[in-house]
Automatic annotation (TrEMBL):
This is tRNA-uridine aminocarboxypropyltransferase. Keywords: S-adenosyl-L-methionine, Transferase, tRNA processing. It comes from Daucus carota subsp. sativus (Carrot). InterPro entries: DTW, DTWD2/TAPT. Transmembrane segments: none annotated. One of its GO terms (molecular function) is tRNA-uridine aminocarboxypropyltransferase activity. The lineage of its organism: Eukaryota, Viridiplantae, Streptophyta, Embryophyta, Tracheophyta. It comes from the Eukaryota.
Length: 259
C-alpha cells in the first residue's frame, strides 16, 4: 500500500504527502534520491530557519537535514541565549577560553559595515587540526531580506563566540554566479545567490576531508529537486516598467520597494 497522507493547502485543496522518508508532496517525492544512510561530517552544522521557511514548498533545508547526520535545525528569527543549549555552551566556552572562539563560524556575505573572511582565507588562518576536528558551521535559512534581519539581530550573541565567513562571491557585483545557474528554485535578488543546501554543500567541500564527494552528492540531489519542481513552476512574467512618477506615488502610498 502506498504510504502517504493528505495535507490542506489553501482552503479545500489537498495534496498527498509522502511519509516513507522525504515528507514532500507525492508528485515531487525524493525518497529514491535521499541517501539511506545519512552522510557523516566532522563539521557540526546548525541551521537557523526563519518561521516563514518551515512550510515553504521550495525549502531545501528539510531535504538537507535528511541527508546529513551531523545537522541540527533551530527555528526562530534571531539567536540569543536560551534559544539553543548547544550554542549557549559554545558561547560559555568561548568566554572562558577565548582561543576556542575560532572553531565556530557563521556563513553570511560580508559588507563594508559587517566584513567577513573568505572561507578559504579563514581556513588558512585558523584551520589547524584541532579546530577542524571540532568545527561548528552556522547558517541562516530565509529570504535575503529576512536573513539580513536575522543576522543583524543575532550579532550581539554571535560575535561572542563565532567568526563570520563567506563564500567567494560579492553581493555588490552584478554578474554571472561563480556557480552553475541551473540550481535556482526561486527568483534571487542578485546574482551569486544560492539555496541554503547549495551554500552548505560548497562550504563542506572546503571544510571536510572528503568534501568534494559530499558536495557532489548534495548538489546532485539538489539538481534532482530542481528538475522535479521545475515541472510545476509557472514561468515568471516580466515586470512592467513603471515611470518615475508612478514609482514615487507607489512609495509614498506605502508600496514595497524592489531590491
Amino acid at each position: 500500500m502506498e504510504a502517504n497522507l493528505t495535507e490542506n493547502v489553501g482552503g479545500n485543496t489537498r495534496r498527498r504527502i509522502c511519509t516513507t522518508g522525504c515528507d514532500r508532496p507525492i508528485n515531487v517525492c525524493l525518497c529514491d534520491k535521499i541517501p539511506r544512510d545519512k552522510i557523516g561530517t566532522i563539521t557540526k552544522i546548525i541551521i537557523i530557519q526563519h518561521p516563514h521557511e518551515r512550510r515553504h514548498k521550495l525549502a531545501t533545508v528539510p531535504v538537507l537535514a535528511k541527508c546529513l547526520d551531523n545537522c541540527e535545525i533551530v527555528f526562530g528569527r534571531r539567536l540569543r541565549r536560551t534559544v539553543s543549549p548547544f550554542l549557549d555552551s559554545l558561547c560559555a566556552d568561548a568566554v572562558a577560553h577565548p582561543q576556542n572562539a575560532r572553531r565556530v563560524v557563521f556563513l553570511f556575505p560580508g559588507t563594508e559595515t559587517m566584513p567577513s573572511l573568505d572561507i578559504d582565507e579563514w581556513k588558512s588562518l585558523h584551520g589547524d587540526a584541532n579546530v577542524m576536528s571540532n568545527l561548528v558551521l552556522i547558517a541562516f535559512d530565509a529570504t535575503w531580506k529576512h536573513a539580513k534581519e536575522m543576522v543583524q539581530a543575532s550579532l550581539p550573541f554571535l560575535t561572542k563566540f563565532a567568526i563570520q565567513i563567506s563564500l567567494p562571491c560579492k553581493v555588490e557585483v552584478d554578474g554571472d554566479s561563480i556557480y552553475t545557474s541551473d540550481l535556482t528554485l526561486r527568483k534571487e535578488p542578485f546574482s551569486g545567490c544560492m539555496s541554503t543546501l547549495e551554500a552548505i554543500a560548497r562550504c563542506l567541500r572546503i571544510l571536510e576531508p572528503n568534501g568534494a564527494e559530499i558536495e557532489s552528492r548534495l548538489i546532485e540531489l539538489l539538481k534532482d529537486m530542481v528538475k522535479l519542481q521545475a515541472c510545476f513552476l509557472k514561468p515568471m512574467k516580466p515586470r512592467v516598467k513603471l515611470s518615475k512618477k508612478s514609482k514615487s506615488i507607489g512609495i509614498e502610498n506605502g508600496a514595497d520597494k524592489d531590491w
